[in-house]
């Protein structure tokens, strides 16, 4: 478990990081918390020539408000996201999902930006980002651009980040007053999701006024369960209505088969867990 | 002078070794270094079965820091064959077992080349530069296919994949009647096939070895359970004189049987260091450990139990296939044989037959893993007892009670020919039921069933026993094992009255230093703190049989007691002389010698006084040597037979198949207890490991023989968060077979818990038509069993999912 040799730089500004990345060429990689990248390097599944460490760039870290938008720096750690009062208040779903990621050691190192850039379909933060209509701001030699989450995740471990681009911040509309729950199904604590469901709802006069549902590990990318959302909106917050709506959860999904689950079981779990996630959200 | 008044034995002392082990204030093998140390890395075969057609190490040799690269051909003449100490039958087939493959690889993970470099980094880089061509051979993975006619062969020269077939038959042995008659006349027959999945020991400290060839002796440090056996075996395998080898096992981070081995890595490090004349170290990565360190379990059990309709058992027939993997390792062939005597367990079977065939496959070799043979047997019989109860609609505990050996029947000779010295199954079971609230949980179960609750409750029972304290040498001889089962100890009385205890047991996490100190403190009447326990270095502890099979306390500590007796006998002579009394008038109590009946105020000499007097040697009685040091070697007359009753309640979510353990009660009888805290720790760890087999762990290979559970992200070792609160208690029925009355506890929890959990899972959903779920009872398997009746769903995935473990396939 010894990685191949690599060069290492730790710039202190985004501009320097972007420059370093583009100068270093195709073989270079940025490293955030290293919680996904280091295992890959140690197992010698990748051998980048140079690592550009984003850990010393203050502007990439922290949570702030920008009018109606919540802005989370890419280098904000899972631990910081979990504990941030603004995140709890305006993006509870993201906080709930982050609570289920790995263990304290990993959460102190791993970052939100790293998780999204890594784009592991079993990663727990992709579905909330998608469900909450996150916008991902990326920076490259050609300047900044904002990519909607719907366009960011393109395939298994693949994103629309272009060579030389760095993910800088995650922007979310505020979901103030929404209730939320992240229902994660795995076999042992500290494991990735076999399937998980991210649900956020807003109730008005005992009726579900708005709903967001995202699915983890139900395809090569996170999936937005729009049919479930549609079926929930306008319904009374009753168990029957929720179960009924949750029947749509597997629509449009394309899960894989692995040692823990096959396609049929994953789709079944999606329905069961959607019902549980929405129910739990409503009781928060 | 602090005379110990309160006995040390029985005190729940914190362990002496905890501070240094927990805080990392010790040096594991990998932390050790030597001047000029070189580092070895191993290139391993990615293929399970192939001929090596070309090896090119030329570019690796050119890389910076590389000192040497060796292939199988380079080491073929010196490497010998890795030892197998247990030829279970006279006609057992045992292929040559190289440490490094020469022209053919037989499992994925087998060494094919080694690099020695100035740093571990340079060695790892050079591995990448080695180029090897292979020619695929047909892969043998499934045991049933392997023993079928015309099967592809792992070792073509052997002409078969069967290594040996071992039989025990009670009619032939004269310990019982003919099982086929029992089956023919049965009122009820329970026929089942159970699978013991392959497990990976997953000890915390990966294996590491360092060899210094520069002195008069070769010194080998290794993270091993068996420094003494390793020394002998290296001498016998590598033609190096035994007195020229010193083996040191420093603090070792767990083993669970996984370090009861003479490993290819130890041999290779030795060979390479000898060749280069320089010290060399090798430390495996976690991935290598999972892939190449020996695996455990892996049996297919065909079982037939006959009984009467009242639940009385009349016969048991066991037909096993046991997967040896590609080679026979140190005690691998004997592992199923250790189970042979345990299938009948605590029950009075009149007839019993056991047949086991050991099979070669193109997988990592298997060998001892916590419990070794006994968990497999216990699982089988405890599952069968539940099935019998279900078949007859009887309470599972009642069926067991009908058949078990009653307390007043001990000592009892079983149908397998063992004599259980003691036991009280009634007491342990009564206590377990009380702690478990058995009746209340049964009532809740009935309610949930009636309501059609999505969460169902199941109760599992395991009334286990096991044979441990390996082992009477004559029994090992009768089983064709190559060595004895004794243990050695020595006690050195230092001039200042402090005590050194040298033990041949080799702790790797168990807490011997504490327990042995407690025992010696009582025996010699010295303070606990004044005792130092030395172990794990063949230079200081020159004789030993090491630690496995729950033998340290029941064999090793008895040797310590006997050595202490000899110290006291020697000291009594000197003390009598000092007291100017006849030796027969002197008595020893609480660390001091006094004239018998002389009253508490009378002059006494402490054992420390005697130690100093003996050191000075100015005035010793005629003919007495100036030395109190003593040693003893103890060979047990019998095994020890811990037992207990474990009850487990699980909730099964029928919508997802997830199993949650709600209650776990373990009442164990391990005889007299030296340190309750250590016993509790052993039980907890054992339960975790047994539950892991029931619910979580499984080594899975794909159709090409590649291990797909190659990281701890796929091979799921549970953590505290995945386990329930354990309710533990003990009954105490002293063993009559040793002077301390102790029985082993190292494996009990693992042996007992697996069937308790699976029984509970099946019990929860039996009314839904489920009578078995293969281990591990994953959510997918349980869900499929409920909804389709399939018991072995899952296993291999065609595609990669998400998560760390799958990254190999997707990046
Ligand atoms: C034991 C363990 C358990 C885990 N369990 C879970 C779990 O249950 N759920 C879960 O969701 N995750 C889990 N993880 C993963 C964890 O959440 C990681 O933190 C996350 O996947 C990656 O974040 P990171 O900051 O460590 O990124 P890194 O590992 O540093 O980087 C990951 C990838 O993203 C790229 N990258 C990182 N940051 C940027 C950026 N700003 N711009 C462009 N590219 C970037 C890197 O180049 C690399 O390719 C676990 C990890 C471990 C080690």
TrEMBL record, chain A:
Top-level taxon of origin: Bacteria
Stretches assigned to the FAD-binding PCMH-type domain: 1-177
GO molecular function: FAD binding; oxidoreductase activity
InterPro entries linked to this entry: CO_DH_flav_C, CO_DH_flav_C_dom_sf, Diverse_Substr_Oxidored, FAD-bd_PCMH, FAD-bd_PCMH-like_sf, FAD-bd_PCMH_sub1, FAD-bd_PCMH_sub2, Mopterin_DH_FAD-bd
Keyword Transmembrane helix attached: no
Record keyword Acyltransferase present: no
SMART domains associated with the record: CO_deh_flav_C (SM01092)
A Pfam family recorded for this sequence: CO_deh_flav_C
Keywords tagged on the record: FAD, Flavoprotein, Oxidoreductase
PROSITE patterns (UniProt xref): FAD_PCMH
Classification via PANTHER family: XANTHINE DEHYDROGENASE SUBUNIT C-RELATED
Protein name: Carbon monoxide dehydrogenase
Automatic annotation (TrEMBL), chain B:
Coiled coil: none
UniProt keyword Membrane present: no
Region (Disordered): 792-811
Keywords: Molybdenum, Oxidoreductase
Domain Aldehyde oxidase/xanthine dehydrogenase a/b hammerhead: from-to ranges: 23-138
Keyword NAD: no
SUPFAM superfamilies per record: CO dehydrogenase molybdoprotein N-domain-like, Molybdenum cofactor-binding domain
Domain of life the protein comes from: Bacteria
Cofactors: Mo-molybdopterin cytosine dinucleotide
Listed Pfam families: Ald_Xan_dh_C (PF01315), MoCoBD_1 (PF02738), MoCoBD_2 (PF20256)
Single annotated GO MF: oxidoreductase activity
Name used for this protein in its record: Carbon monoxide dehydrogenase
